[in-house]
Amino acid sequence: MADTPLAEGARHRVVIVGGGFGGLYAALALRRAPVDVTLVDRRNFHLFQPLLYQVATGVLSPGDICAPLRSVLRRQANATVLLGDVVEVNLDQRWLRTSEGLRLEYDSLIAATGAGHSYFGNEAWAEHAPGLKTVEDALEIRRRILIAYEAAEQEANDERRAAWLNFVVVGGGPTGVELAGALAEIARETLRSDFRRIWPPDACIYLVEGLKRILPGYPPGLSVKAGRALAGLGVRVRSATLVTGIDEDGVTVEAAGRTARIAARTVLWAAGVQASSFGARLAAAAGADTDRAGRLVVRPDLTLAGHRDVYVIGDLAVYTHQTGAPLPGVAQVAIQQGGYAARAVELRLRGDRPRRRFRYFDKGSLATIGRGKAVADIGPLHFAGFPAWVVWAVVHILNLIEFENRVLVMTQWAWNYLTRRRGARLITGTPLQPEIKEPG
Amino acid sequence: MADTPLAEGARHRVVIVGGGFGGLYAALALRRAPVDVTLVDRRNFHLFQPLLYQVATGVLSPGDICAPLRSVLRRQANATVLLGDVVEVNLDQRWLRTSEGLRLEYDSLIAATGAGHSYFGNEAWAEHAPGLKTVEDALEIRRRILIAYEAAEQEANDERRAAWLNFVVVGGGPTGVELAGALAEIARETLRSDFRRIWPPDACIYLVEGLKRILPGYPPGLSVKAGRALAGLGVRVRSATLVTGIDEDGVTVEAAGRTARIAARTVLWAAGVQASSFGARLAAAAGADTDRAGRLVVRPDLTLAGHRDVYVIGDLAVYTHQTGAPLPGVAQVAIQQGGYAARAVELRLRGDRPRRRFRYFDKGSLATIGRGKAVADIGPLHFAGFPAWVVWAVVHILNLIEFENRVLVMTQWAWNYLTRRRGARLITGTPLQPEIKEPG
Fold first, then answer.
1. Which residue range is the domain that position A334 belongs to?
2. A129 and which of A267, A423, B79, B343 could share a cystine (Cβ 3.0–4.6 Å)?
3. Same domain, A202 and A267
4. Residues B245 and B183 in one domain
5. In terms of domains, do A381 and A268 share one?
6. pLDDT (0 to 100) of residue B399
């Protein structure tokens, strides 16, 4: 089968690896271009990652924030979706090979496989502190949160019960802030009347951030506001605090030269990122520079040095040509870079002079903290509270890729907002956990 | 902790094992009784099993048809929910022990753990033909259905591609009919325009039933109508056909003394049932009779012979005192038996004479075949087509246990009905399947 290239026409062949924000929006932007697009992903769906923490905390179901790639591209006749993992890259002969043995020839390649989490070399932490990148991650986190309360309810020993009711979120970026806020709401509202032996509002939520303030990418004023909103929910924010150890019993932290220990059975990781394995393969093939997280250094037009036909976008790329610092790993950067790469392919194909360089237009940042609470940083406007939450909700609803999902998410949010409930708090996967079997 | 019984008061202690239709409705029916209810389940949610096939076929998400048990019982002060598996039964001293080492003393026990699937002694079939009883089963079936099309799209060999596009459903009861109808709609409508190398409507769906007609529990006229509706969707119905072998390449069948082979990579099991493992434990402890499927034979008042304080209800029980034949394993029987058992406990507690025996009031049967198609058997009324489908939809919406779920399911159905789409068709779990890696 390797000798049957999927794209057979004489048209310019664009292969896009990765169906996240960057890859999918690049494919969509090429819908009127005279090219054959092949979008390869190992998953059959696009995941709306900004709302993944809501799956992890039982508000939404995976189906609400995922859209099948084939469904999104079904009417785009020049696009083919291919399920597979790219295992081989040949940039000289311009082909990729997938895990299923298919050989994909390309004229332009757009690499958009994103990033996973990094434990900064402490891979042993992964088992005790799952990160939040995939749907499976979110369901595992949901399972751990819910199992913790179930185990606490059955635990007779005070100390061990307290450890089940301590939750630590490592990393004070938007995901960490959102997770910590949601954990606090679960404890204080959702589960409030659900148990008979424990009192869920007794749970302690810790948010640990190594830098001096949470939301370090936001203006300092918003960090203060977010910190206050979290404190109002009972979250114990520990900034300028380094995590030096994680094991099954808790977290060791260091602050101002002093070491402390938080006994906690549930630790969630929202700290480092690491470029996907395809990134390493591509960097090796291209001889490209990477940063510490394995992201590929790109030129001002998003191509790799020496490879005018290879674009790297989104979380897989380091783009420093705008401000000197790398652009943040957010959906907006990926979407805009996907559009730029698509346009660049089209211009090159027409023989037009390409635009000089990619420029990110920052529409602003939003982070939600809880029901009716958020912080916003939109151009000159920095605001917080309910207005920010409304903007957050509207922006996220509008950006869901399928209309059906918008209706579903709106329904769920409205219900959740009115009732403070979380309908999707199911413990799935391993029905009963070994942890709960032998609490002592 | 084993010496700390959960129910400590002097009140009558009712322990219910299993939070399905029987157990949950028994707990709810005891809400005003002067008893302490403990509901034990290994899952933290109630599953609305009649709609599970819609999760398996990508219409609904698990969260839509599951309701957390704690959430349903949160306002019922006399009820405690306990996550656990019962691993020991002592009927003489009246206690159970859970997998977490908790000892539960009871005055009345209601056993409602239901049934799983049975491969009639051919356990090797399980791997190739998953059944549909749990949320995880449904997600696994969904994964297999979707992977089959992805693999077919990438398969160059005609014969192997055809095997990926053949689907066999074993068992022509309501679940089998619903699955076969949904598979046909996926092939003909949902995925119609989604692929570039295969034409999904080419897929063949087989429904194999050992008895002379499908829907054997329904009046013959409805079996004919259901068969016609399935044929109209392109399903190949094979009744009076026995399955004699299932392996990874397909199914061997026998009809009228002749053996035939269906090459198919996707086989779904909707045939036999087997009482849950708790049933065997209880039967051994009580010295109770069981039928071939391991279900416990109960007396007219749903108790076990020699154990007036042990009620067995729902799919775990064989009740032959009404018609001579066992009652069917449907939600209505379980719900009514749960209500009866709760009432019987209350009457006994008050010293009143118990009602003589349980009587099932058959409200009728419904099975859906596809979008706008169903068959209904309600008292003297037997009807099919769109009116039956409307009745089916209304009945199922109204019986969902949480209002939120009703709104969500209604939204999803309305969307699915209007657009013929299935938004929740995600391949989760193992991202890429070994099967697709080596198709040959």
1. 12-42+84-114+276-350
2. A267
3. yes
4. yes
5. yes
6. 83
Given an 8 Å threshold on Cβ–Cβ distance, is A71 in contact with B421? yes
Flag if B63 and A195 touch (Cβ within 8 Å).
Answer: no
User: What's the whole-model pTM score?
Assistant: 0.89
B370 within some domain: yes
Report if residue B5 sits inside a domain: no
If asked whether residues B386 and B243 sit together in one domain, one would say: yes
Residue with tokens 């939750």: A167
Give the model confidence (pLDDT) of A284-336 as tens digits.
999 999 999 999 999 999 999 999 999 999 999 999 999 888 998 899 999 99
Q: Coil, strand, or helix at residue B394? A: helix
Q: Which of B350, B378, B397 is the last residue of a domain?
A: B350
State the Cα–Cα distance between residues B13 and B106, nearest whole angstrom: 5
Tokens of A72: 């999104």
Of A63, A80, A82, Cβ closest to residue B61: A63
The answer on A247 and A298 residing in a single domain is no
Which of A178, A185, A189, A346 is the catalytic position? A178
How many folded domains does chain A comprise?
2
- B103 assigned to some structural domain: yes
A431 or A149: whose pLDDT is higher? A149
What is the CATH classification number for the domain harbouring A405? 3.50.50.100
Could you tell me the CATH number of the domain that includes residue A341? Answer: 3.50.50.60
Closest CA relative to residue A241, chosen from A260, A252, A254: A254
Q: Give the pLDDT of chain B (440 residues) as one tens digit per residue.
A: 333 444 445 799 999 999 999 999 999 999 999 999 999 999 999 999 999 999 999 988 898 899 999 999 999 999 999 999 999 999 999 999 999 889 999 999 999 999 998 998 899 999 999 999 999 999 999 999 999 999 999 999 999 999 999 999 999 999 999 999 999 999 999 999 899 999 999 999 999 999 999 999 888 989 999 999 999 999 999 999 999 999 999 999 999 999 999 999 999 999 988 999 999 999 999 999 999 999 999 999 999 999 999 999 999 999 999 988 899 889 999 999 999 999 999 999 988 877 779 999 988 888 889 888 999 988 888 899 889 888 888 888 888 877 777 877 877 777 777 777 777 888 877 654 434 433 33
Which residue in the set B42, B150, B425 is minimally distant from A432, CB to CB? B42
Mutation to test the B interface, candidates A8, A426, A433, A438, most B Cβ within 10 Å = A426
A178 is catalytic: yes
Domain boundary among B310, B325, B350: B350
Question: Is residue B227 situated within a structural domain?
Answer: yes
| Record: contact A62-B426, CB cut-off 8 A | yes
Residue B239 and residue B299 in one domain: no
Both B125 and B159 in a single domain?
A: yes
